[in-house]
Write a structure and sequence with these properties.
- The structure is a homotetramer.
- By secondary structure, chain A is α+β, with helices and mostly antiparallel strands.
- Helix content of chain A is 61%, strand content 10%.
- Chain A has three domains: 129 residues; 141 residues, Helix Hairpins; 139 residues, Jelly Rolls (Sandwich).
- In chain A, strand 1 and strand 2 form a beta hairpin.
- In chain A, helix 1 runs antiparallel to helix 2, helix 10 packs across helix 11 and helix 17 crosses helix 18.
- The longest helix of chain A is centred in the middle third of the chain and has 52 residues.
- Chains in contact: A-B, A-C, A-D, B-C, B-D, C-D.
Chain lengths: 441, 441, 441, 441
């Protein structure tokens, strides 16, 4: 049998089964102890017996499976049989083995008339499997495809339900409620009513015995704590969820207030707001400078990864700019590292005719208009993949035309210095640019 | 018909109507099912029938309207009929169409004696419109003029009320309460009492049936969760509200404690405190360096926008400083980019007589006093729009007089290096300054 | 009469009186309406009448006082009578005037047998004064000497008590409880029990009338919201209180975990921990680099203030270092700006014999030992005010002795470059140092 | 007797005893007052008398012990007898002396038939010791080895239990419940039920007396506040616990969303995720740049400490790299300061054959493969302690082979400039490298 990856689909599904088994045991062991097997029979042919048998066999099978599940050490998947088995033997094996010993079945074979609560007692080692459930839920919380909020709330829900169930079982025993499903529901009703601090009504204090009073006091205090825990978790979840959005709101609110107080005209305010919202949709992050997001993320990664991502992200640009087609990959890498992204709102001037230029532009997305300011004549409209401004860089002349945006535009800027450097390294690129520039002149 | 902007006033108002219609359906469909039409009649001439008819026609009209509401794509308002219609057809149309099919009216035409709960059942597709309400509320939360806190709390309130109503309707059915408005109120009373965890009293557990007990248990747990959600939201709202204020408090507290511990004299402590409070009122933000706020905000914006804002903000200065009047806009832009704002408390020295100066000052707001330290004689008082310190920059001589603030002053500083640069680029500005300096000498 | 400062002690005390008056009215107006004056008599000689009269006269006097309280505009205290009065007339006067019209007393003069609830109705304009209470509490929250946490909680407490009181009064009316103090207490008991979600028990729903049920439902929902608000506030208060401490804890925990995981020896770990705790006591701030705190705070302030504080803080050093005594203030300012503070743990080497030195040290606090490493002989112990290391700087020779700390030491370092610069500017200082260095050589 | 360190084990254990004594007094003084000594006898031979006697003697002994416990002043442990005793005498002595006066025992000697509640009254000064408990719990919270979360929650729990106990004792007195343990439990049941807002049921309001009603109202309001406090604390604890993990989650979520939206291929996404998780395990901190963690922590510390830690951390490297063995410590220090850590994922190129190199690498952890790209032949596999890339640095030739990682690798980079500098300072090191390089060539 092949060694399985601990994050593979099959191990994950199996873990869910283990968690369900653990939940089953946490529900049924106290339930059978409280109801003495009178609701769900636990005799040799009873439903309880078959359920126990089924879930026990899962645990026993798990014992064998674990010997074939590898582990991760320092980012490395260990899949040699010997260290894997040694590792399992040294870590969880003993607990797992203890937790799946079928003591209850053995006991029943020898003493067929054993009371149900003693059988349930013998099943207590099953509860040790709870640690696996915790590590599984922690793993799901961390795994990429899941929503950690949902995992956390689900775990909280399960724990709460189990606590309510145990309290109900204990109350059942203490109050000596008549054994029936209706009786159990009454105990659960009491448990939930107390733990949620709803507290409709109860037997008058004077008529309660000492253990009843003590247990009720304990449950009420438990309820408050549990409740505080729920609220704390939900509050932290809500805070987490809204963190980046509320940072955006705060920033926007502040600049809006600022502009309003300074009596900047409405039209300009609207432009600023629209720009911010565009940027928000563009990169969902305003905690740092808007445009550096890409670099901000990629900086953390090692060079090889960040270059690969950069190539992917700008696939579009590389394919549509004619002079990049068929270029050497190293050239493209070098160019990508030099390009600075900027985002401009509509009707914004990119180049003013007559200025001395220091950079050229590639259009990543959007549409710009090239026009002559002297005779107010539209020369050309350009779209994604086009580039402009290369003329002034080559010949040190003034800009021969103005360029303004028609839509929101995402441009890449290539500075003169970086331009010269790339020209020196890749003469073929320099020739291409010069050729196109000559044509447009 | 013209294509409407999705953020235009008319579309917004219409969205409110759609939200109200959805709320109506969420209230009335369960209400009619629970009360079997005995409180609000649903016969052909009953009030319920006319209400249903009216709200349904809104939904049907909405179906046609949506074909004329454009959408935003990458910051661009799409207002061509063909893509707009295609887009609507591909996205929400099917759901909207399904949700406004008048199945109940058709059914009633064929089977006039239909029971009310079946009619209500046929209206269930109406509830699909809830997604539009969520997107509308999200839009309001983001829109600039609204207060996001109020939108969030209002949404929370509506959801809570609906949940309470549904619980009341279900309890009404389960308990078989006699059908009347008083009976409904009793059910609502039970629902609110349970969900808010008030829990005055209830039928003793032993007298409740299994579905009653189960439902009560479910509602109590729902109540706790809902409650946790309310608290989480309110807590996050309060945190958001106070964020910048409490940052200010923390900073002020810290410096106060620091000065107190170091036994700095009371008078000096008071000055520091007063300065901080002035700055707080001045820009409501202490998370960054006090004076860089303007630059901090404007840095995020593209150059064209930030220049426009800068021109607006300093309108006052530009108009009041004589030498700026009638200057070329490009010159003013260049100057504005160089000016550094500083804020000084009253009685603070700006210039000491005899020092070698490296900068000149423009008064944006406040009053300063020019005086000679040698003969302790006041030379001049200056107010907003005035400038001083230009002398030493021009002739490399020592300051000929001291300048101190009389009130809190917001000044702009122009450094010598920047000064020389602007002088070189704009000789006319240099002449003006020289002329005034000669006069004052 | 002199114009009073709005933050002076007398205006502050008066504001407390106004807040008390407002609270009185918010308590008594609804109380008298609910109890119809049967508990606290409101006849011409009754207690209620005198109370009303007394508190009304405060409000009337306030009207006159306000004309003599200045205001703050852009950090400037305006104390000219004319603008002060104009300002008051344009802002709060109308509301204040309306709120203190003694309509009830006039009405009683004309209709002596007026019912109490009508009199209470005529006192409703008094409630308009609540806005002043809010602005007063906001002012206290901001003021330096108060604890903002206590102000916020106190305000919350007052608001909660008032809400409970109003709910009690309304319930009193709706339930027709017999008019007596015991009756009022029962209503208050009901109100608090419902608003706090304690909810012991209540009249069975079936026996309640429609207004009773409706009001109860409203109060329960109010209770939950109010409760959420309390929790949100308390949670935010707790977070604020612990912010800087928990940042410290987090940092310390992280470095401890780091060192433990990397298996750094226990002794070294203890040293690091001890250093951190010393620094925590030293400046209570770990969010920024430890030692830059002083500079961090002072950077925000204008130069004149920060210089004054710097002089105060280092008073000790200036007085104890012999060569600073009697030096020119400008020299001391320049030196202070150059000194870099460092903190060293006990038994730490400051200078190693034989190394080439680039800095000299001043002892601000603590004790160091100068000793020769070659013959292991203690040369000298030095304390606050002493300085060392000047030798190597003057002659470019190697350190002639080692220096180690005996206690935790706060030192100031003067770098060679800065040293040379100050030497050039202040030859007298250079001479002094040289003189002492010659002596010690 | 030797002066004890205030943080020594013995003083800590003693403090726990003092805290327990205080808790005892806070429980028993009100209990005896409420039950009038009828449950736990307080006569000369009763259990209560012996308990009191025992705990009192602890307090009296404490008085003497404190004179031998030193204190910390500015990071320095003061252990001279005279200042220690003077300090204790001036600070806590008076309070401690007052709190342990055995007034009750004296009173009993003179008036043997004294009522129990008077004796309890005479024990009230004992309650003054609560301040010591607070300072002790604060100290535990700060101490390194404890978990501050547990300390805070434990303290909260104790305070809550005490409040519940006092409320129960007061209710016991007000309601005149029959004196028995069952009676006390009933009072405690009422107290907990009210404070936790469970509120099952209570005596109908109309049958309660004025003090009962008033006290109940007070307790309900106390309950809400206490509850808010619990929730606030628990929420802040949860937030603290998850702070660094949720920062990691947020960062990972953001980059994942970013990559997904930009349609980066699944395989590349998986690589990025795997890299992040490796880094998370590597240093548990993503708030700053991944690799600068070490420097980030060490920067705060004085040079001597950070160098010692650096030596410890890289023990492994120093021992395994052959040329470091036996090197001078100062040389190693200098090298360590220059090395830059990087982490690379598996299958990542470190060196490309034919490139001009600017740095050499040391392997701290992991495995790399050296191979020739021309003939696709594996030259060598290298592990922890090996180094490579030194060739190109020495002779300015192109890389003679490619190197790629086989596992996750933690490398240290030594830049050419730093390399030359160290070579100049330590010619012996240069020789060693050259020797090895010649061999490998």
């Amino acid at each position: 049998m092949k060694i399985l990856h601990p994050e593979s689909r099959i191990v994950n599904s199996w873990n869910i089964l283990i968690v369900l088994t653990t939940i089953y045991n946490y529900i049924f062991v106290p339930f059978q102890m409280a109801t003495k097997g009178n609701i769900i029979g636990n005799s040799f042919l009873g439903l309880g017996f078959f359920l126990d048998l089924g879930f026990d066999s899962i645990l026993i099978f798990d014992l064998f499976l674990r010997f074939n599940v590898g582990y991760i050490e320092r980012g490395q998947f260990v899949n040699d049989k010997i260290p894997v088995r040694k590792n399992y033997f040294q870590t969880d094996f003993k607990r797992h083995f203890l937790s799946c010993l079928p003591l209850d079945i053995v006991a029943r074979l020898f003493y067929p008339n054993l009371e149900v609560w003693i059988i349930a007692l013998l099943r207590i080692p099953r509860l040790l499997r709870v640690f696996d459930s915790f590590s599984a839920s922690k793993f799901w919380e961390d795994s990429i495809n899941s929503n950690p909020v949902i995992v956390r709330l689900l775990r909280l829900l399960i724990v709460i339900f189990l606590v309510e169930h145990w309290v109900a079982c204990t109350w059942f025993l203490i109050r000596n409620i008549n054994i029936s499903f209706h009786g159990y529901l009454q105990a659960l009703y009491w448990s939930v009513m107390t733990l949620t601090t709803v507290g409709y009504d109860n037997i008058p204090a004077g008529e309660q015995t000492v253990p009843e009073l003590s247990f009720t006091i304990f449950v009420m205090m438990l309820g408050v704590t549990m409740y505080a825990f729920i609220i704390g978790n939900v509050a932290s979840v809500i805070t987490d969820m809204n963190a980046s959005r509320s940072r955006f709101r705060e920033k926007l609110d502040r600049i809006q207030t600022y502009l309003r107080e300074k009596k900047v005209p409405q039209g300009l305010q609207r432009k600023v707001r629209s720009y911010y919202q565009y940027m928000w949709e563009y990169n969902r992050d305003t905690s740092t400078d808007f445009l550096s997001v890409e670099k901000y993320y990629l900086n953390d990664l090692p060079r090889s990864l960040s270059t690969q991502i950069s190539l992917c992200l700008n696939q579009n640009l590389i394919e549509s700019v004619p002079m990049f087609k068929g270029a050497e990959p190293q050239f493209i890498e070098q160019i990508l590292a030099k390009l600075q992204p900027i985002v401009l709102p509509p009707e914004d001037y990119v180049i003013h005719e007559g200025q001395i230029g220091h950079e050229m532009y590639f259009i990543n997305h959007g549409e710009v208009q090239v026009f002559s300011e002297k005779d107010n004549k539209v020369i050309e409209n350009m779209e994604s993949g086009a580039f402009f401004g290369e003329l002034a860089l080559l010949y040190s002349v003034r800009r021969t035309a103005s360029v303004k945006t028609l839509t929101y535009c995402e441009l890449f800027v290539l500075e003169k210095n970086d331009f010269s450097q790339v020209m020196a390294d890749y003469p073929s690129f320099a020739d291409k640019i010069q050729e196109i520039a000559e044509k447009r002149r």
